[in-house]
Structures are given as C-alpha cells and as structure tokens.
Amino acid sequence: MNSSRPQLTHTGVDDMDPRIPLDLERAIFELVALSHPVHIPNLLLVASRIKTWLQPLLYRTVVVNCDPPRVDGLRSYRPELFFQIAELHRPFLDSVRNLMLADANDEEMARILSACSHVQNLYIGWPLDRSPSDASLGALNALPLRHLYCDTRYVLYQDGPFSQPSLANISHLELFDEVPEVEHWSKLVELPRLTHLCTGDYDAHFSAFALEKCEFLHVLVVTMSPRPSWDYSDVAKDSRFVMMKMLSGLVEDWQRGALHGDDYWARAEDFIAKRRAGLSRPDRSILFILHRTFLRILSRYFYGSIPNEIHIPQSSSGDQSGGMRWSDAMDMGGVVLASF
Fold first, then answer.
1. I want to staple 172 with a disulfide (CB 3.0 to 4.6 A). Which of 118, 166, 196, 284 is the partner?
2. Is 209 contained in some domain?
3. Which SUPFAM superfamilies does this chain map to (predicted)?
4. Rounded Cα distance, 194 and 250, in Å
5. What is the pLDDT of residues 83-99, one digit of tens each?
6. Helices (H) and strands (E) in the chain, counts
7. Is residue 140 part of a domain?
8. pTM for this one?
C-alpha cells in the first residue's frame, strides 16, 4: 500500500556541520572563562582545542603566597612552584594581568615581576619593614601598570620614579601605610593619569591637597574607621571623598576585584554617584563594606532583610565596629552601610 506521506530525502540537516564556527565557539568559551574564572580548570577538560584557547587565561590572575586565598576557586602558588611553571610554560605567563604577591622576599619578587612582564594590576603585600632593592624596583618599573597596591616607599620615596613607564599610566593607586611625608606629596601630582587614590591613614591636610592638586582625581578613599578626634568636615564636602571601613579585608577585596571587577573602587564610585544624584545625603561620607558573615549577624536585628543603606540614628547604642561607635560616627557626619 502506497503512502501519500512525502518521502524524506537525504538533504539539508544530515549534510550540515552541527558545530558552530570555531571563531565564534572560541569567543563563547573565552567569555565564559573570563566571566567565571574559577571554572576554567573544568573547561579545559571539554576538548583539546578548548584547552589550547583557555589555558593562558588560567594564569590571568596569579596569587603568590596567600594561603588560603580568600576567594573560592582562586589558587595560590608558592614561589618555587611558580618558578617551575615559568620554566615549563613560559608563554602562559604573558597572559598574567593581575598579580598578588602576598609575601615574597626581594629576590623572589624581582624574578616573578620579570617573568610576568604584562602585569597591569599589582598587589605587593609583604611586611612593611622591608625596603625594596634596586633589582625589584627595576622589575617593577618595567611593568605597564594601571592599578598598584603597595607600601608608600615603592612609589613616593624613589628618586625620580615618574620617568618610568610603570607609573606613567597608573590610574588606581593604594598606599597601605601612613600618609606620606609632606615633601613627597607633590610627586602624586606628577602622575598624569591618576584618577583613584586610596590611603590607609587619614590626614586632613593631605586629603585636601590631593583633592585640590591631583587634576584628574575622581575618587579619594581612606580605608579606616573614623575617629571622634578627626576633623574632616571640609574634605567631606567634596563628593569624591569617601571614608571606608572594609570588614571583608583588603586581600579578599583585591582578589574579588581582579576576578570580577567588584571591589571597593566600584563601591566607592557607586556611593559617590548616589551622593551626586541626591540618593544619599551629601553630608554622609562614611561607607562601610560589610562581609557576608557580619551581614548575617546584622540580619537578626533587621528581621532577615538588610537594606542597601542603613542610616544609623543619633540614638543608636554604642556598638563597636572597627573601634568606632555608631553614635560617634553619626556626630561626625553620618554612617552609610553598604553590603555585597
């Protein structure tokens, strides 16, 4: 019995290549890898071509001597293991853009910086009682840096460092230790592209100087809890000034920023934008970045839900956070809590 149904012919679908074009496939995998770097090791197992494409991205963010890393999925390398990788997979180190040296001696630092010649975002977190040698400074000055987190002596106490290309393109600079001595302040003005500056201590005169003299400065952050004895009423009027206490820690914040771009710079920019838009009171210049663990504790007092901003009233109790009482902070201009 003949069927009236049309007969399928061997055309069209059977002859089509089911794979998408390689350039598009590569773009998709690279996008996924950059969006979720912690999953790169698993993506390498998909196929040999995927491994070829993504393995360099595995080394885009490198952390040395930070055990354990503060962000899940981020690996920390001992210097000796790093040097083995440098010897066996030297081309991959050309992909390193974000480098954290949580601790390393001077010789190790010079070797690591020399091996990672394309680093743009550098965190040098070794103890502040060590002074950098000419070798480590030479390796540092050869880098095309844009973001630098370090002790003041790496930047301001060098003789004539601003002729070096490493600082010519610096846009984001964090100085861990005390505010620089007055005779070194003018060197900040010599940084032609400095837009974001952070210090680990507060000095009213230094803050006023930076806000006035650094021509392109968009953000000035002080990473300390305010103290009742401080007078920052004048600088707080400038919307670019943010006093910030990060209960999550600088190391974790840097790692999160390197992987996802979600760091205290981004939060400060958002806070400043809200002040300028009238969404946050302009007299409030204190921002607290809270760790999730602390948020869980706070949530007990806010019935499980914490708003993006909490304006602590004048009558608040003297609870402590980072050595500062909420009531003291309120007397000094107000507190805004920001979560992540």
1. 196
2. yes
3. Phosphoglycerate mutase-like
4. 20
5. 998 888 888 889 999 99
6. 13, 13
7. no
8. 0.78
